[in-house]
Amino acid sequence: MIEHVLGALAAVFELHTLALMTLGVTAGLIAGAIPGFTIAMAVVLTLPFTFGMTATQGLSTMIGVLVGGLSGGLMAGMLTGIPGTPSSVATTFDGFPMARGGRPGLALGIGVWSSFFGGITGAVVLVTLAPQLARVGLEFGPWDYFALVMFALTITSSLSGKALLKGIIAGTLGLLVAAIGEDEVNGVARFTFGSDAIRQGFAFLPVLVGLFAFSQLLSDVQDRDKARQALMPRGTKAVRVEHRKAIGEVLRRWTVVLRSSMIGVFTGILPGAGSSVSNILAYDQAKKASQHPEKFGTGTPDGIVAPESSNNATEGGALIMVMALGIPGDIVTAVMLGALLIHDVVPSPSFISDEPVLAYSIFIAFFFAHFIMVTMQAVCLRIFVLITRIPMYVLASVILVYCAIGVFALHNVGFDLWTLFLFGIVGYTMRNLGFPLAPMILGVVLGDIAELNLNRAWSISNDISLFVTRPWSAFFLTLALFSAVFPWYQRDRNRKKWTVFYLPVFLLVIAAPVLAMGGTVRPVLGAGLVLVGGYLLWRRVKPSSSNPDA
Amino acid sequence: MGRLHTDTLIAIFLLLFCGVFLAASFTIRETSYASLGAEVWPRVVLVFLTLLSLGFLLQSLRPDRREDTPARRDLRQWLAAHTNAFWCFCWFGLFLTTLPYLGMLVGGILFVYATLTSLGRRDLRSHMVHAAIAVISVAAMWALFTYGLNVFLPEGTLISFT
Which residues in chain A touch residue B53, judged by CB atoms under 8 angstroms apart? Predict the structure, then answer.
């Protein structure tokens, strides 16, 4: 193991890689700070630059962009009240009042150092948990993988807003897009409609850039007047970050940092729920746990520490899923997966043992990018203020042609540009009709994995009951089922009687496959789930319950 | 009869889409060696999509159960809301069509200039600023990819630089 870590250290700390990472962090900080630009878009747009790099360099650069993007959002939120990314929405609640109250340097400092400590905590959990989860992943058969993909799709759909049905339709459309072209197992062409170009299927990058970046840019310039205005109000000024004071403030709140980071990590592990969810969850929890909840929203440091620690830690959690199981949970990690595939690395449970140097390079890059982020924040603040004077329509026009160049660079095939155009139209239309794009993108990425595993399962046995009798498969299918019902549970909670049974029934049902998993720990865990579920159910149904619904 | 809700139109479109693809799935070549034919998975996906579309159609016909689709607007409002996107799509389509003739560098510059002018102001100063932005940004990207990353970008048959 030591030799792999040393090999990874040598690869990451190579001057060229460090320079690329610094460039990536800087680009991420700036992109994250611009309202309308999401972190996912910054990572998507970085991908074409990584084709000519080694896998370590490419992934380190993308991780740099990711970490920079997560921390960049706070700059805009604190200085102008407009969060740069959805990951920094909750930061604005207290960061902006603190900055307006005459302490912008301290507000920024607390944000930067909370991001740093949150990210480092996420990195530690990533290093600890990913190899363990990968070991569990080695137990998975094709039935279990297929069920895991179904769970990833249903939970992404159910967490993508009120429109559950639209989310599932989008995810299914993504699966269909992935099925177009030659099938991977038999080499038979599908849905080509007589076109030779479609025979190879749609390449992942043009579909992703079209669906996500192209349509996002067009949505950003939809309002003619807004598109012509500068991104930020004039008069936005760079300030000096008060690092020393900020470190003290953050370290005094180490419990908030730790709790929020854990919320971030576990939100990241859950497919579909990214940093846009975790920052609000962490803020809410910090407010509930605080002795002075009334101070939240007026510029209290706790209100900055909680969301900023959690959003940086979230990506550590999301990386765990990709590295341990090869299943991306959000658009950012889907792009990371795409980057690995471009370099002929297929993430799977055996990824860490097959490619140890690359795996440890990812760990180290994620860890070290946070140090670069702290260093570059002060520099980027000045660049950010300059960039905010540019109107959105200028940025969008230039980035559109960059998308074309980047997509063409992938395979040097003109058809990819038409794919970009087609999926740009599809993405823009879907956005405007209220369809979430994240499930569709995950559907495109996971479609091949689902089909391949279904094929493998069928080749081994045509007994369909294995999908429900194998513990892991039953576990994931149960999660998929309950996550599909989750939006209705949220809607009817405290209003309809059936919702009081949702949690106990879920615990009792999920306990069955856990009990069947064998070993010592898991059956004990399963028994615990039965006890908790049974107790909750008893409380819900007993006549003297304090719950008025029971 | 009142106007159809947008969701209803989407559901009908999805059902037609599923119909076309289901029909196309019967043209997929069957192989004797496969344990699971190449047509099985797409058909499973399509049948599921058809069921979802039917559910969506039924939901859209119940006024109290419509999902959060933006309200329908009249044609003028609709065009006004999407004018900028239409310009971008038109110019991008033209850029791709002329790419074999103009190449990435010249085509890209013209695309950026045309898009900037369509979306931005159109006075003389703006035209000059747009031209400068187009030339500098596309030339820089072209140089970066061509010389920095060794990517061979398409050269036009009409305008070539080699």
Answer: 169
* B37–A186 CB contact, under 8 Å: yes
Contact assignment for A162 to B53 by CB distance below 8 Å: no
* pTM recorded for the entire structure: 0.82
CA-based nearest distance A275→chain B, Å: 23
In a domain, residue B70? The reply is: no
ipTM, two decimals, is: 0.91
The answer to whether A400 faces chain B, any CB pair under 8 Å, is yes
* Contact criterion met (CB < 8 Å) for B89 and A425: yes
**Contact list, A165 vs chain B (CB under 8 Å):** 52, 55-56, 59, 67
Residues of A in contact with B156 (CB under 8 A): none
Q: What are the extents of the domains in chain A?
A: 2-27+47-379+414-452, 466-541
Split into its structural domains, chain B has a count of 2
CA A418 to chain centroid, in Å, comes to 28
CA dihedral A204, A206, A210, A211 (to 10 degrees): -10
Regarding whether B137 and B92 lie in a shared domain, the answer is yes
Q: How many helices, marked H, and strands, marked E, lie in chain B? A: 4, 0
And the tokens for A433? 């009709």
Nearest CB to B141 within list A405, A425, A455: A405
Q: Does the residue B155 lie in any domain? A: no
Residue A509 burial (10 A CB sphere; 0-12, 13-18, 19+) = middle
Task: Return d(Cα A60, Cα A341) in angstroms, integer.
Answer: 15
Query: At A391, phi and psi to the nearest 5?
Result: -70, 155
Choose among A160, A449, A508, A111: nearest CA to A312.
A111
Q: What per-residue string of b and e applies to A449-483 under the rule 16 or more CB within 10 Å gives b?
A: bbbbbbbbbbeeeeeeebbeebbbbbbbbbbbebb
- Range(s) of the domain holding residue B115: 76-148
Please indicate, yes or no, whether residues B61 and B80 belong to a single structural domain of this protein. Answer: no
Query: Is residue B160 situated within a structural domain?
Result: no
| A445-460 confidence digits (pLDDT tens) | 888 888 988 999 998 9
The tens digit of pLDDT for each residue in A466-490 reads 999 999 999 999 999 998 888 888 8
Nearest to B138 among A176, A401, A459 (CB): A401
Where a domain ends, among B65, B93, B108? B65
